[in-house]
Amino acid sequence: MRDFSRPTTLNADRLFGQVAQKLAVAIISGEIGAGELLPNEDALRADISVSRTAFREAVKILTAKGLVEARPKSGTRAAPRERWNLLDPDVLSWHFEADPNEKFIRDLFELRRFVEPSVARLAAQRRTAADIARIEAALRAMTENPPYSDACVRGDLAFHEAIFAASQNAPLQCLASAVIATLQWSMVLKKGEEEAFADSLPDHENILLAIIDRDGDLAAVRMTGLVIDSLNTTLASVNVGQVEPDKIARIKHTK
What is the pTM (predicted TM-score) of this model? Predict the structure, then answer.
């Protein structure tokens, strides 16, 4: 599945992008522990063709994202996790490549549960006719294309992006890239779960209807249900336990 989670992305086709990805996955997976020296370009050549320029550019990128740090007289080392920019879309994608573990998945969906219902509530209160048209177009892309096709994925991400835009709150919109990246990579994990995707379409439509009706509380409740459902299908895809099935049933049947 191609990455549609943001307009621009670190170019994996460029050598420095490949080096950055390899080092990042090694750091996130624990293969290179916090405080350990990064392998130099000579050590990496066994797996990938690395030039000194590409290596330096990759290290510069990872430093900006908080994954590595340069220490005077002691070289460039992996940074501790608390310094990583976990909301950076590249860092999120590297996490899923390294180890989509249950704790990290739950943490990301916990962020979504805090943020997206509030965004949906504001969107219902502040949306314009143009916002509604944008959300409706995104929903059509989801319903008129095969599940998990490129067009369908773009529609799903656009649906949530449009709701963020409709909230008319610039600081909240700064969190959109993290939520959209989480959506993108949860769909990677769930790819093939076509029945679950089909089941989610009425939930998306109901969120849209609540926003059209300017019912902020109902939009928030329905968005909460959608996020919980998505968490459960994602966890099921990586064979770990689900959460709150009784709460899901209550939320989904809220009028």
Answer: 0.80
